[in-house]
Amino acid sequence: MSEEKSGRKSLKYLIFLIIFLSLVEIFDTYTTLFPNVIVSKVQDEFLASETQVIADSIMSLAIAIASIGMYFVVVNQ
Length: 77
Description:
Elements: H1 2-33, H2 39-46, H3 52-76
């Protein structure tokens, strides 16, 4: 009886783990790629007066902040 319960619990945990890790992979892909999609257009529009190095630095910082923000939004929902 106890082995059967243990087997069911292990199977449920395995299913949960597969679903959870799949969602983590989707989330990681989304947060990595989404902010990088329109970087050149944002730089052309808002950072045209800055040098390329400064514009790249500002965009890298903004993408890092956006990624952290998206992480907290998904985790807290």
